[in-house]
Amino acid sequence: MKIYNTLSRQKEELKPIREGEVSIYSCGPTVYNYAHIGNLRTYIFMDILRRVLKYKGYKLKHVMNITDVGHLVSDADEGEDKLVKSAREQKKTPWEIAEYYTKVFFEDIASLNIEKPEIIAKATEHIDEMIKFVEALVEKGYGYEISDGIYFDISKFKGYGKLSRINLEEQIAGARVDVNKEKRHPADFALWKKAPKEHIMQWPSPWGMGYPGWHIECSAMGMKYLGDFFDIHTGGVDHIPIHHENEIAQSEALLGRPAVKYWMHGEFLLVDNGKMSKSLGNTYTISDLRAKGFDPLAYRYFCLNAHYRNKLNFTWDAMKAAQTSYDRFLEGALAHKNAGKTEDGKIAPEVIADFDKEFDEAVSDDLNIPKALGIAWNVVRYEVKSAELYELLLKFDKVLGLDIDKAEEKIKKKENIMEELDPEIKKMIEERQKARKEKNWKVADEIRDKLREMGIILEDTPQGVKVSYVDRK
Ligand code: AMP
Ligand code: ZN
Question: Which CATH number fits domain 2-266: 3.40.50.300, 3.40.50.620, 3.30.70.20, 3.90.650.10?
Protein backbone atom coordinates (compact mmCIF):
# COMPACT_ATOMS: atom_id res chain seq x y z
CA MET A 1 0.00 0.00 0.00
CA LYS A 2 1.00 3.61 -0.49
CA ILE A 3 1.03 6.40 2.08
CA TYR A 4 1.91 10.06 1.75
CA ASN A 5 5.09 11.02 3.57
CA THR A 6 5.15 14.70 4.55
CA LEU A 7 8.96 14.52 4.69
CA SER A 8 9.34 13.61 1.00
CA ARG A 9 6.06 15.29 -0.08
CA GLN A 10 5.30 12.09 -1.99
CA LYS A 11 3.21 8.97 -1.84
CA GLU A 12 5.59 6.15 -0.94
CA GLU A 13 5.23 2.39 -0.79
CA LEU A 14 4.85 1.38 2.86
CA LYS A 15 7.78 -0.88 3.72
CA PRO A 16 7.64 -1.56 7.45
CA ILE A 17 10.93 -1.84 9.33
CA ARG A 18 9.87 -5.17 10.82
CA GLU A 19 8.03 -7.44 8.43
CA GLY A 20 4.31 -7.76 9.06
CA GLU A 21 4.31 -5.20 11.86
CA VAL A 22 3.84 -1.43 11.82
CA SER A 23 4.92 0.81 14.68
CA ILE A 24 3.09 4.13 15.03
CA TYR A 25 3.35 7.13 17.32
CA SER A 26 0.44 9.59 17.38
CA CYS A 27 0.56 12.95 19.07
CA GLY A 28 -2.30 12.83 21.54
CA PRO A 29 -4.38 15.49 23.26
CA THR A 30 -3.30 18.15 25.72
CA VAL A 31 -5.90 17.43 28.38
CA TYR A 32 -6.82 20.89 29.64
CA ASN A 33 -10.20 21.26 27.91
CA TYR A 34 -12.84 19.31 25.96
CA ALA A 35 -11.63 18.08 22.58
CA HIS A 36 -13.37 19.97 19.77
CA ILE A 37 -14.59 18.35 16.59
CA GLY A 38 -11.44 19.56 14.77
CA ASN A 39 -9.17 17.74 17.22
CA LEU A 40 -11.41 14.72 16.82
CA ARG A 41 -11.08 14.78 13.04
CA THR A 42 -7.34 14.25 13.52
CA TYR A 43 -8.02 11.21 15.74
CA ILE A 44 -10.50 9.83 13.19
CA PHE A 45 -7.65 10.03 10.65
CA MET A 46 -5.36 8.20 13.12
CA ASP A 47 -8.05 5.55 13.59
CA ILE A 48 -8.55 5.07 9.85
CA LEU A 49 -4.81 4.54 9.45
CA ARG A 50 -4.89 1.88 12.21
CA ARG A 51 -7.90 0.13 10.75
CA VAL A 52 -6.56 0.08 7.20
CA LEU A 53 -3.23 -1.35 8.35
CA LYS A 54 -5.04 -4.11 10.24
CA TYR A 55 -7.31 -4.71 7.24
CA LYS A 56 -4.16 -5.22 5.18
CA GLY A 57 -3.00 -7.84 7.70
CA TYR A 58 -0.38 -5.88 9.65
CA LYS A 59 0.15 -6.26 13.36
CA LEU A 60 0.22 -2.91 15.14
CA LYS A 61 2.27 -1.37 17.87
CA HIS A 62 0.71 2.01 18.36
CA VAL A 63 1.51 4.61 21.02
CA MET A 64 -0.46 7.75 21.76
CA ASN A 65 0.61 10.24 24.40
CA ILE A 66 -1.51 12.22 26.80
CA THR A 67 0.08 15.62 27.36
CA ASP A 68 -0.73 16.39 30.98
CA VAL A 69 2.13 18.84 31.54
CA GLY A 70 4.42 21.19 29.69
CA HIS A 71 2.39 22.37 26.69
CA LEU A 72 2.66 26.13 26.85
CA VAL A 73 -0.08 28.43 25.57
CA SER A 74 1.97 29.12 22.45
CA ASP A 75 3.49 26.12 20.64
CA ALA A 76 6.67 28.18 20.40
CA ASP A 77 7.36 27.92 24.12
CA GLU A 78 5.83 31.09 25.33
CA GLY A 79 3.19 31.79 27.94
CA GLU A 80 1.87 29.62 30.69
CA ASP A 81 1.47 25.83 30.82
CA LYS A 82 -2.03 25.10 29.41
CA LEU A 83 -2.83 22.70 32.27
CA VAL A 84 -1.79 25.21 34.92
CA LYS A 85 -3.82 27.98 33.26
CA SER A 86 -6.96 25.84 33.02
CA ALA A 87 -6.51 24.69 36.65
CA ARG A 88 -6.24 28.29 37.84
CA GLU A 89 -9.34 29.32 35.86
CA GLN A 90 -11.40 26.37 37.10
CA LYS A 91 -10.04 26.50 40.66
CA LYS A 92 -8.84 22.89 40.50
CA THR A 93 -5.40 21.28 40.66
CA PRO A 94 -3.69 20.54 37.32
CA TRP A 95 -3.88 16.83 38.23
CA GLU A 96 -7.67 17.04 38.60
CA ILE A 97 -7.94 18.93 35.32
CA ALA A 98 -5.85 16.31 33.52
CA GLU A 99 -7.77 13.39 35.02
CA TYR A 100 -11.17 14.81 34.15
CA TYR A 101 -10.39 15.79 30.56
CA THR A 102 -8.53 12.53 29.90
CA LYS A 103 -11.64 10.62 30.95
CA VAL A 104 -13.90 12.72 28.71
CA PHE A 105 -11.43 12.38 25.81
CA PHE A 106 -11.65 8.58 25.96
CA GLU A 107 -15.45 8.74 26.13
CA ASP A 108 -15.49 11.05 23.11
CA ILE A 109 -13.23 8.88 20.99
CA ALA A 110 -15.21 5.77 21.97
CA SER A 111 -18.42 7.48 20.77
CA LEU A 112 -16.72 7.96 17.38
CA ASN A 113 -15.56 4.32 17.22
CA ILE A 114 -11.93 5.49 17.37
CA GLU A 115 -9.93 2.52 18.60
CA LYS A 116 -7.65 3.09 21.54
CA PRO A 117 -3.98 2.67 20.60
CA GLU A 118 -2.23 -0.29 22.24
CA ILE A 119 -0.15 1.97 24.48
CA ILE A 120 -1.33 5.20 26.12
CA ALA A 121 1.59 7.15 27.57
CA LYS A 122 1.06 9.97 30.04
CA ALA A 123 3.78 12.60 30.03
CA THR A 124 3.80 12.89 33.84
CA GLU A 125 4.65 9.17 34.10
CA HIS A 126 7.76 9.50 31.92
CA ILE A 127 9.67 12.37 33.50
CA ASP A 128 12.81 10.23 34.09
CA GLU A 129 13.04 9.25 30.42
CA MET A 130 12.72 12.92 29.43
CA ILE A 131 15.41 14.07 31.88
CA LYS A 132 17.81 11.41 30.55
CA PHE A 133 17.09 12.54 26.98
CA VAL A 134 17.79 16.18 27.87
CA GLU A 135 20.98 15.22 29.71
CA ALA A 136 22.23 13.36 26.65
CA LEU A 137 21.50 16.38 24.43
CA VAL A 138 23.38 18.68 26.82
CA GLU A 139 26.32 16.25 26.85
CA LYS A 140 26.41 16.23 23.04
CA GLY A 141 26.45 20.03 22.97
CA TYR A 142 22.92 20.47 21.57
CA GLY A 143 21.36 21.59 24.85
CA TYR A 144 22.43 24.63 26.88
CA GLU A 145 21.33 26.10 30.17
CA ILE A 146 20.03 29.64 30.72
CA SER A 147 18.31 31.15 33.72
CA ASP A 148 14.82 29.76 33.04
CA GLY A 149 15.65 26.37 31.58
CA ILE A 150 17.54 24.13 29.18
CA TYR A 151 17.19 24.98 25.50
CA PHE A 152 17.93 23.20 22.22
CA ASP A 153 20.46 24.98 20.03
CA ILE A 154 18.83 24.71 16.60
CA SER A 155 21.74 26.29 14.71
CA LYS A 156 23.87 23.25 15.73
CA PHE A 157 21.41 20.90 14.04
CA LYS A 158 21.98 21.11 10.33
CA GLY A 159 18.73 19.52 9.22
CA TYR A 160 16.50 21.99 11.06
CA GLY A 161 13.44 22.85 8.94
CA LYS A 162 13.52 19.80 6.66
CA LEU A 163 9.96 18.69 7.45
CA SER A 164 8.29 22.08 7.01
CA ARG A 165 10.87 23.23 4.44
CA ILE A 166 11.27 26.48 6.31
CA ASN A 167 14.82 27.77 6.58
CA LEU A 168 16.34 29.26 9.69
CA GLU A 169 16.12 32.83 8.43
CA GLU A 170 12.37 32.42 8.02
CA GLN A 171 12.18 30.95 11.51
CA ILE A 172 13.88 34.07 12.87
CA ALA A 173 11.49 36.30 10.95
CA GLY A 174 8.54 34.32 12.29
CA ALA A 175 9.72 34.36 15.90
CA ARG A 176 8.14 36.86 18.24
CA VAL A 177 10.07 40.07 18.91
CA ASP A 178 9.96 39.76 22.67
CA VAL A 179 11.94 36.52 22.70
CA ASN A 180 14.08 35.55 25.61
CA LYS A 181 17.34 37.49 25.11
CA GLU A 182 19.40 34.73 26.72
CA LYS A 183 18.54 32.26 23.95
CA ARG A 184 21.29 31.77 21.37
CA HIS A 185 18.79 31.72 18.50
CA PRO A 186 15.24 33.15 18.63
CA ALA A 187 13.74 29.81 17.55
CA ASP A 188 15.67 27.70 20.13
CA PHE A 189 13.08 25.79 22.12
CA ALA A 190 12.81 24.63 25.73
CA LEU A 191 13.79 21.06 26.58
CA TRP A 192 13.27 21.62 30.29
CA LYS A 193 11.80 24.56 32.18
CA LYS A 194 12.87 25.59 35.66
CA ALA A 195 9.82 25.98 37.87
CA PRO A 196 9.17 28.83 40.25
CA LYS A 197 8.26 27.67 43.80
CA GLU A 198 4.52 28.20 43.33
CA HIS A 199 4.39 26.11 40.14
CA ILE A 200 2.36 23.02 41.11
CA MET A 201 3.69 20.42 38.70
CA GLN A 202 7.44 20.12 39.19
CA TRP A 203 10.05 17.40 39.46
CA PRO A 204 13.69 17.24 40.63
CA SER A 205 16.29 17.30 37.84
CA PRO A 206 20.03 17.99 37.45
CA TRP A 207 18.98 21.63 36.86
CA GLY A 208 16.83 21.96 39.96
CA MET A 209 13.05 21.62 40.22
CA GLY A 210 11.21 21.95 36.93
CA TYR A 211 9.06 20.39 34.24
CA PRO A 212 9.65 19.07 30.70
CA GLY A 213 9.17 20.96 27.45
CA TRP A 214 6.29 19.71 25.33
CA HIS A 215 8.38 18.49 22.36
CA ILE A 216 10.74 16.30 24.42
CA GLU A 217 7.73 14.36 25.74
CA CYS A 218 6.92 12.85 22.37
CA SER A 219 10.54 12.12 21.42
CA ALA A 220 11.22 10.40 24.75
CA MET A 221 8.02 8.37 24.93
CA GLY A 222 8.15 7.34 21.27
CA MET A 223 11.66 6.03 21.72
CA LYS A 224 10.84 4.26 24.97
CA TYR A 225 8.01 2.20 23.48
CA LEU A 226 8.88 1.91 19.80
CA GLY A 227 12.68 1.93 19.84
CA ASP A 228 14.99 4.37 18.11
CA PHE A 229 13.61 3.72 14.63
CA PHE A 230 9.92 3.29 14.02
CA ASP A 231 7.58 3.41 11.04
CA ILE A 232 4.93 6.14 11.22
CA HIS A 233 4.48 9.34 13.21
CA THR A 234 1.09 11.10 12.98
CA GLY A 235 -0.40 14.44 14.02
CA GLY A 236 -2.35 17.40 12.67
CA VAL A 237 -0.82 19.70 10.03
CA ASP A 238 -0.29 22.44 12.61
CA HIS A 239 2.39 20.23 14.18
CA ILE A 240 4.59 20.24 11.08
CA PRO A 241 6.44 23.57 11.49
CA ILE A 242 7.19 23.56 15.22
CA HIS A 243 6.35 20.46 17.22
CA HIS A 244 7.45 17.84 14.71
CA GLU A 245 10.37 19.90 13.46
CA ASN A 246 11.55 20.05 17.07
CA GLU A 247 10.98 16.34 17.62
CA ILE A 248 13.12 15.60 14.55
CA ALA A 249 15.87 17.93 15.81
CA GLN A 250 15.96 16.31 19.27
CA SER A 251 15.88 12.70 18.12
CA GLU A 252 18.30 13.11 15.23
CA ALA A 253 20.71 15.14 17.36
CA LEU A 254 20.75 12.26 19.84
CA LEU A 255 20.97 9.40 17.33
CA GLY A 256 22.87 10.98 14.45
CA ARG A 257 20.17 9.61 12.08
CA PRO A 258 16.37 9.69 11.68
CA ALA A 259 14.12 8.02 14.25
CA VAL A 260 10.98 7.98 12.08
CA LYS A 261 10.45 6.56 8.59
CA TYR A 262 7.14 8.15 7.51
CA TRP A 263 5.50 11.35 8.78
CA MET A 264 1.74 11.60 8.19
CA HIS A 265 -0.45 14.64 8.91
CA GLY A 266 -4.19 15.18 8.93
CA GLU A 267 -5.58 18.42 7.47
CA PHE A 268 -7.69 20.81 9.47
CA LEU A 269 -11.41 20.98 9.98
CA LEU A 270 -12.76 24.44 9.30
CA VAL A 271 -16.03 25.73 10.70
CA ASP A 272 -18.08 28.05 8.47
CA ASN A 273 -14.97 28.24 6.28
CA GLY A 274 -12.79 29.64 9.02
CA LYS A 275 -10.78 28.75 12.08
CA MET A 276 -12.61 27.55 15.16
CA SER A 277 -12.28 29.97 18.00
CA LYS A 278 -13.73 30.50 21.43
CA SER A 279 -14.55 34.14 20.61
CA LEU A 280 -16.68 33.05 17.63
CA GLY A 281 -18.38 30.41 19.79
CA ASN A 282 -17.82 27.73 17.16
CA THR A 283 -15.51 25.29 18.91
CA TYR A 284 -18.08 22.52 18.94
CA THR A 285 -17.73 19.34 20.96
CA ILE A 286 -19.35 15.90 20.93
CA SER A 287 -21.87 17.04 23.51
CA ASP A 288 -22.86 19.95 21.23
CA LEU A 289 -23.55 17.41 18.47
CA ARG A 290 -25.57 15.25 20.86
CA ALA A 291 -27.56 18.22 22.16
CA LYS A 292 -28.76 18.89 18.63
CA GLY A 293 -29.81 15.28 18.26
CA PHE A 294 -26.92 14.08 16.10
CA ASP A 295 -25.33 10.67 16.42
CA PRO A 296 -21.55 11.09 16.94
CA LEU A 297 -21.10 8.43 14.26
CA ALA A 298 -22.84 10.73 11.78
CA TYR A 299 -19.94 13.11 12.45
CA ARG A 300 -17.51 10.26 11.76
CA TYR A 301 -19.46 9.60 8.53
CA PHE A 302 -19.16 13.31 7.69
CA CYS A 303 -15.37 13.13 8.11
CA LEU A 304 -15.07 9.99 5.98
CA ASN A 305 -16.40 11.95 3.01
CA ALA A 306 -13.18 13.97 2.76
CA HIS A 307 -9.65 12.73 2.21
CA TYR A 308 -7.50 13.22 5.30
CA ARG A 309 -5.11 15.51 3.39
CA ASN A 310 -7.89 17.89 2.36
CA LYS A 311 -9.45 20.61 4.44
CA LEU A 312 -13.04 19.90 5.44
CA ASN A 313 -15.61 22.58 6.17
CA PHE A 314 -18.15 21.97 8.93
CA THR A 315 -21.56 23.67 8.96
CA TRP A 316 -24.71 22.55 10.73
CA ASP A 317 -26.41 22.14 7.35
CA ALA A 318 -23.64 19.83 6.20
CA MET A 319 -23.97 17.92 9.48
CA LYS A 320 -27.71 17.50 8.89
CA ALA A 321 -27.04 16.19 5.40
CA ALA A 322 -24.46 13.77 6.82
CA GLN A 323 -26.93 12.46 9.40
CA THR A 324 -29.58 11.88 6.71
CA SER A 325 -27.09 10.20 4.43
CA TYR A 326 -25.74 8.03 7.25
CA ASP A 327 -29.29 6.96 8.19
CA ARG A 328 -30.00 6.00 4.57
CA PHE A 329 -26.73 4.10 4.41
CA LEU A 330 -27.71 2.03 7.45
CA GLU A 331 -31.23 1.47 6.10
CA GLY A 332 -29.75 0.26 2.81
CA ALA A 333 -27.39 -2.11 4.60
CA LEU A 334 -30.30 -3.47 6.62
CA ALA A 335 -32.27 -4.18 3.44
CA HIS A 336 -29.44 -6.53 2.39
CA LYS A 337 -29.44 -8.21 5.78
CA ASN A 338 -33.18 -8.77 5.71
CA ALA A 339 -33.05 -10.26 2.20
CA GLY A 340 -31.67 -13.46 3.67
CA LYS A 341 -29.98 -16.14 1.63
CA THR A 342 -32.73 -16.82 -0.88
CA GLU A 343 -32.10 -17.95 -4.47
CA ASP A 344 -33.27 -14.51 -5.66
CA GLY A 345 -30.61 -12.87 -3.59
CA LYS A 346 -27.73 -14.90 -5.04
CA ILE A 347 -24.95 -12.66 -6.25
CA ALA A 348 -22.42 -13.76 -8.84
CA PRO A 349 -19.06 -14.31 -7.08
CA GLU A 350 -17.36 -11.94 -9.57
CA VAL A 351 -19.58 -9.08 -8.43
CA ILE A 352 -18.49 -9.54 -4.82
CA ALA A 353 -14.85 -10.03 -5.83
CA ASP A 354 -14.92 -6.82 -7.88
CA PHE A 355 -16.34 -4.75 -5.03
CA ASP A 356 -13.84 -6.28 -2.66
CA LYS A 357 -10.91 -5.49 -4.94
CA GLU A 358 -12.03 -1.90 -5.58
CA PHE A 359 -12.40 -1.26 -1.86
CA ASP A 360 -8.98 -2.72 -1.14
CA GLU A 361 -7.39 -0.60 -3.87
CA ALA A 362 -9.01 2.57 -2.54
CA VAL A 363 -7.91 2.14 1.06
CA SER A 364 -4.42 1.10 -0.07
CA ASP A 365 -4.01 4.30 -2.06
CA ASP A 366 -3.01 6.62 0.78
CA LEU A 367 -6.26 5.88 2.66
CA ASN A 368 -8.68 7.03 -0.03
CA ILE A 369 -11.68 6.66 2.26
CA PRO A 370 -14.07 8.91 0.27
CA LYS A 371 -13.60 6.51 -2.63
CA ALA A 372 -13.95 3.46 -0.38
CA LEU A 373 -17.16 4.88 1.07
CA GLY A 374 -18.46 5.40 -2.47
CA ILE A 375 -17.81 1.72 -3.17
CA ALA A 376 -19.63 0.75 0.03
CA TRP A 377 -22.54 2.91 -1.20
CA ASN A 378 -22.53 1.01 -4.51
CA VAL A 379 -22.89 -2.20 -2.52
CA VAL A 380 -25.72 -0.67 -0.44
CA ARG A 381 -27.53 0.48 -3.60
CA TYR A 382 -27.00 -2.76 -5.53
CA GLU A 383 -30.30 -3.66 -7.15
CA VAL A 384 -30.36 -7.27 -5.87
CA LYS A 385 -30.68 -7.41 -2.11
CA SER A 386 -28.58 -10.14 -0.61
CA ALA A 387 -27.18 -11.32 2.71
CA GLU A 388 -23.84 -11.91 0.96
CA LEU A 389 -23.60 -8.19 0.24
CA TYR A 390 -24.46 -7.51 3.86
CA GLU A 391 -21.49 -9.70 4.86
CA LEU A 392 -19.30 -7.71 2.48
CA LEU A 393 -20.47 -4.45 4.09
CA LEU A 394 -19.60 -5.83 7.52
CA LYS A 395 -16.12 -6.54 6.20
CA PHE A 396 -15.77 -2.99 4.86
CA ASP A 397 -17.00 -1.69 8.18
CA LYS A 398 -13.80 -2.98 9.81
CA VAL A 399 -12.27 0.08 8.13
CA LEU A 400 -15.24 2.46 8.09
CA GLY A 401 -16.28 1.88 11.70
CA LEU A 402 -19.88 2.97 11.10
CA ASP A 403 -21.65 0.32 13.24
CA ILE A 404 -23.33 -1.36 10.27
CA ASP A 405 -23.93 -4.39 12.51
CA LYS A 406 -26.04 -2.18 14.78
CA ALA A 407 -28.14 -0.73 11.93
CA GLU A 408 -31.37 -2.33 13.13
CA GLU A 409 -31.23 -1.04 16.70
CA LYS A 410 -30.05 2.39 15.54
CA ILE A 411 -32.96 2.76 13.12
CA LYS A 412 -35.47 1.55 15.72
CA LYS A 413 -34.08 3.99 18.23
CA LYS A 414 -34.36 6.81 15.75
CA GLU A 415 -37.97 5.89 15.01
CA ASN A 416 -38.94 6.24 18.57
CA ILE A 417 -36.70 8.25 20.78
CA MET A 418 -39.12 8.45 23.72
CA GLU A 419 -36.80 6.45 26.00
CA GLU A 420 -33.87 8.81 25.75
CA LEU A 421 -35.88 12.01 26.20
CA ASP A 422 -35.53 14.46 29.02
CA PRO A 423 -38.18 13.91 31.77
CA GLU A 424 -39.26 17.53 31.22
CA ILE A 425 -39.96 16.88 27.53
CA LYS A 426 -41.70 13.59 28.30
CA LYS A 427 -44.02 15.49 30.63
CA MET A 428 -44.85 18.01 27.91
CA ILE A 429 -45.68 15.20 25.48
CA GLU A 430 -47.96 13.58 28.06
CA GLU A 431 -49.71 16.90 28.66
CA ARG A 432 -50.29 17.25 24.94
CA GLN A 433 -51.76 13.75 24.74
CA LYS A 434 -54.10 14.66 27.57
CA ALA A 435 -55.14 17.91 25.83
CA ARG A 436 -55.84 15.99 22.61
CA LYS A 437 -57.99 13.46 24.47
CA GLU A 438 -59.97 16.35 25.89
CA LYS A 439 -60.20 17.81 22.38
CA ASN A 440 -58.40 20.89 23.61
CA TRP A 441 -56.70 21.43 20.22
CA LYS A 442 -55.39 24.88 21.02
CA VAL A 443 -53.31 23.69 23.98
CA ALA A 444 -52.22 20.57 22.09
CA ASP A 445 -50.95 22.65 19.17
CA GLU A 446 -49.21 25.12 21.43
CA ILE A 447 -47.28 22.33 23.13
CA ARG A 448 -46.39 20.81 19.78
CA ASP A 449 -45.04 24.15 18.49
CA LYS A 450 -43.06 24.70 21.64
CA LEU A 451 -41.47 21.27 21.33
CA ARG A 452 -40.64 21.94 17.72
CA GLU A 453 -38.75 25.03 18.78
CA MET A 454 -36.85 22.82 21.20
CA GLY A 455 -35.90 20.51 18.33
CA ILE A 456 -38.48 17.76 18.92
CA ILE A 457 -41.01 16.76 16.28
CA LEU A 458 -44.28 15.00 17.09
CA GLU A 459 -46.29 13.12 14.51
CA ASP A 460 -49.66 11.58 15.27
CA THR A 461 -49.84 8.14 13.70
CA PRO A 462 -52.44 5.37 14.03
CA GLN A 463 -49.93 3.61 16.34
CA GLY A 464 -49.69 6.63 18.59
CA VAL A 465 -47.44 9.64 18.72
CA LYS A 466 -44.07 9.34 16.96
CA VAL A 467 -41.24 11.45 18.35
CA SER A 468 -38.10 12.47 16.47
CA TYR A 469 -35.45 15.16 16.43
CA VAL A 470 -35.77 18.14 14.06
CA ASP A 471 -32.17 17.70 12.90
CA ARG A 472 -32.78 14.15 11.83
CA LYS A 473 -35.76 14.81 9.59
P1 AMP B 1 -4.01 19.59 21.09
O2 AMP B 1 -4.79 18.85 22.12
O3 AMP B 1 -4.26 21.06 21.09
O4 AMP B 1 -2.55 19.26 21.12
O5 AMP B 1 -4.56 19.10 19.67
C6 AMP B 1 -4.85 17.77 19.42
C7 AMP B 1 -4.78 17.45 17.96
O8 AMP B 1 -5.79 18.15 17.23
C9 AMP B 1 -3.46 17.83 17.30
O10 AMP B 1 -3.01 16.71 16.55
C11 AMP B 1 -3.80 18.99 16.40
O12 AMP B 1 -3.00 18.98 15.26
C13 AMP B 1 -5.24 18.69 16.05
N14 AMP B 1 -6.07 19.85 15.67
C15 AMP B 1 -6.18 21.06 16.29
N16 AMP B 1 -7.08 21.86 15.65
C17 AMP B 1 -7.57 21.14 14.60
C18 AMP B 1 -8.53 21.37 13.55
N19 AMP B 1 -9.19 22.51 13.45
N20 AMP B 1 -8.75 20.38 12.64
C21 AMP B 1 -8.10 19.20 12.74
N22 AMP B 1 -7.20 18.92 13.69
C23 AMP B 1 -6.92 19.85 14.62
ZN1 ZN C 1 3.71 15.18 19.94
Answer: 3.40.50.620
